[in-house]
Input
Amino acid sequence: MIAYLKGNLEIKTKGYIVIEVAGIGYKVYMPESMIAKLGEIGEKVKIYTFMKVREDDVSLYGFITNEELRMFELLLSVSGIGAKGALTILSNVTPSGFALAVITNDVNVLKKLPGIGPKTAQRVILELKDKLKKEQEIILEETKENASLQEAIVDDEKIAEAVSALQVLGYSRKEIADALVNVDMKVLSVEDIIRKGLGNLAKSI
Output
């Protein structure tokens, strides 16, 4: 499995890029919004990747951040959403916005995304929140050594939503606890807590 590619950007076109690594050109499919953020041809780039392997096809899908990659993997786990649909969705919503919509049952945000109607939006929320339920008791158990975070998660619905949103993006309970330990969660909005947490998580990678 290829976790990421770091090399020269050789081709930048609609729907995919080509990165040259050690003399080999890798064709990587990416969301349009992410391709637009990449540098100029010839510049060095680092792309996190997901390899899709089928009998008749091996394809690489690329993302600028780990959060985008995790969101892609989550979308693929939802019945009825394929790689092409997941890329389109990623072009139109940030990982934090997506996670927040799932946690807060905001069907209206999800159903506005290309390729997601009301039924698919409800299925996304149902399937991903079902996964979270299995994790919720574990995060409370593993944050016992951090009394302030433990108390905040139990007593503050806003903070519990932010923690769950970070879980949606695939982070472990310990990673979340460490990332939020110095965040002033009482005064921030849910989305700001998520953004702060993602910023701290990115620094720890």
Q: What stands out?
A: The two ends are 19 Å apart (CA to CA). Residues 179 and 186 are 15 Å apart (CA to CA).
